[in-house]
Amino acid sequence: QVQLVESGGGLVQAGGSLRLSCAASGRTFSLYAMGWFRQAPGKEREFVATISWGGGSTYYADSVKGRFTISRDNAKNTVYLQMNSLKPEDTAVYYCAQRNTGVARREAEQYDYWGQGTQVTVSS
């Protein structure tokens, strides 16, 4: 079965950087679009970034555009989220997710598999 395992979260000061990783297993990684979402306490899960099967298409939430970069290494079955210039409002549990197609989409309901999440805390 498909498994997604996030890592790289932690505590960082405002203005700092973190790189999240999501290792996938269970099927051919390179065929499927991947996404990152986040959920802050008391808030709904929100879209962060998505990438198509080959990496040719990427989309970002307005709140992270210019600060976050999504990428993938299909040889390593891994998707990354490089987060720079972090702000306290970026504090959340970050989830990676996988679609059943190669087309990148922003909507959480378009994703079929989810990881367990990794906590990112940005202090002011």
Provide structural commentary.
- This protein is an all-beta fold.
- Helices cover 0% and strands 48% of the residues.
- It has no helices and 11 strands.
- The strands form 2 sheets. Strands 2, 4, 5, 6, 9, 10 and 11 form a 7-stranded mixed beta sheet that branches.
- A hairpin with a 6-residue loop joins β4 (34-39) and β5 (46-51).
- It is globular and about 40 Å long.
- The mean pLDDT is 98.
SSE map:
Blueprint: E1 3-7, E2 10-13, E3 18-25, E4 34-39, E5 46-51, E6 58-60, E7 68-73, E8 78-83, E9 92-98, E10 113-114, E11 118-123
Parallel strand pairs: 2-11
Antiparallel strand pairs: 1-3, 3-8, 4-5, 4-9, 5-6, 7-8, 9-10, 9-11
The SSE string, one letter per element, is: EEEEEEEEEEE
Distance from N terminus to C terminus (CA atoms, Å) equals 40 Å
Strand content: over 45%
Structural class by secondary-structure content? mainly beta
What's the rounded overall pLDDT mean? 98
Question: Can you describe this structure in just a few lines?
Answer:
With 124 residues, the chain is mainly β. Helices cover 0% and strands 48% of the residues.
